[in-house]
Amino acid sequence: MARDRKIRLGIIFGGRSGEHAISIRSAASVIDALNPEEFEITAYGITRSGGLADADGVRAMLPAPIRGRVLAGDGLEPAQACMRLSSGGAEARRGARRPPQIVFPLLHGPYGEDGTVQGLLEIAGVPYIGCGVLASAVGMDKDVMKRLFLQAGLPVAPFVTALARDVPEKIGMLQARAEGEFGYPMFSKPANLGSSVGIRKIHGAKEFAPAVRHAARFDRKIVIEKGIDARELECAILGNEDASASVVGEIFPAHEFYDYEAKYRNPESRLEIPARLDAAQAEEVRALALRAFHAIDGSGLSRVDFFLERGSGKIWINEINTMPGFTPISMYTKLWAASGVPFDALVRRLVELGEERFRERFAQTVPDDGPGTERA
User: Fold this and answer.
1) Domain extents for the chain?
2) Are strands 244-252 and 230-239 parallel, antiparallel or unpaired?
3) Over the range 150-179, which residues count as b (16 or more CB within 10 Å of their CB) and which as e?
4) What's the CATH fold of domain 3-128?
């Protein structure tokens, strides 16, 4: 494919959150998997302190075998610039004849997956892949997410929310409330984090306070949820208003639950795609996944996680992930591969969806002389 026919893809990775390393793995997986004859990739690294890395810093963040496959970007300049996002370097402008046509913000957790970077890209007029500001913010905050799901009539397991600042003085009241509303076992987790960072399973009263204090280290809000004896299912979403749901997959964690170690460090964890469900169960999961996606006004992609309760067979929505991982073991890409959409085609479709949403978004911009421009 000729150079000017390549998809010019920018990838933002790294970030300030506790999922910095996972973001790097996601970006490296995408870069390694894409055909350089079809994609011209410019990589933009966000350091752990939140700064935009210079070209040398970008190279240092990426694994050595793939450094030669990307242009090291140190600034973003859209084709029709509203503003330029830059650390002051010039390599990106020298190395790439034209700026990326679209950006893939492969950032996980706060300061990236939560709508902050999405808002910055919208202000700058840069098209990007994935959910917009609202859906990204709601999808990151498990408390707001669950309340929105409940308002939409979706099945959400019982939970209570607390502020981290209240934990030292109100831990006893919080424990009494959780015990009274749903009892043990239960889970405590930071409201705004992913990859199971900060999550602990609470088996009994003695474990409650240490687990909640642990979650409070990671976020200003804590969610405490009823523990459900269940199978863990996941479904991937692709699209905008007319989104589609993938086949359903099941997780078999190596540990008691799918914690950080089980996800990324224990090879005994495994995925099964498709999950062993009857047709009615699979269809219910897919339908609920789409409803959850539209409930937060999702776009582009998401992965929705479920519990299938043993005994009752009831399906509960656990959470939605608006920027799921793209590592070699990630469920999102595996689910779409099993649904007939290989990796390259998946990225191409995500580019199309991002550009579509960008055109729609900017078509709604009110002109300078439009209604409401006059002020009293």
Assistant:
1) 3-128, 158-226, 230-361
2) antiparallel
3) eeeeeebbebbbbebeebeeebeebbeebe
4) Rossmann fold (3.40.50)
Which strands form 270-272's sheet, in the order they lie side by side? 270-272, 244-252, 230-239, 300-309, 315-321
Contact 286, 235 (CB under 8 A): yes
- Note the CATH architecture for domain 158-226: 2-Layer Sandwich (3.30)
Q: CB 371: neighbour CB atoms within 10 A? A: 7
Angle 236-118-104 (CA atoms, 0-180°, nearest 5)? 60
Contact by Cβ (8 Å): 292, 304: yes
SS3 30: helix
Q: Nearest CA to 129 among 53, 197, 30?
A: 30
- Here the contacts of 95-99 (C-beta below 8 Å, separation 24 or greater) are 95/42, 95/71, 96/8, 96/40, 96/42, 96/71, 98/8, 99/8, 99/10, 99/42
Topology annotation, domain 230-361: D-amino Acid Aminotransferase; Chain A, domain 1 (3.30.470)
- Do the Cβ atoms of 221 and 191 come closer than 8 Å? yes
Residuewise pLDDT in 10s, the chain (376 residues): 444 688 999 999 999 887 888 899 999 989 998 999 999 999 999 999 988 898 899 999 999 999 999 998 766 655 444 445 554 444 444 444 578 999 999 998 888 889 999 999 998 889 999 999 999 999 999 999 999 999 999 999 999 999 999 999 999 999 999 999 999 999 999 998 765 678 999 999 999 999 999 999 988 999 999 999 999 999 999 999 999 999 999 998 755 555 455 455 546 667 899 999 999 999 999 999 999 999 999 999 999 999 999 999 999 999 999 999 887 678 999 999 999 999 989 999 999 999 999 998 877 655 555 555 444 4
Instruction: Return the DSSP state at 128.
Output: B
Show the 3-state SS of 179-208.
HHHCCCCEEEEECCCCCCCCCEEECCHHHH
Pull the structure tokens for residue 70.
């990307």
Strand-strand pairing, 85-86 and 102-105? unpaired
Q: Please report, as a single letter, which amino acid is at residue 158.
A: P
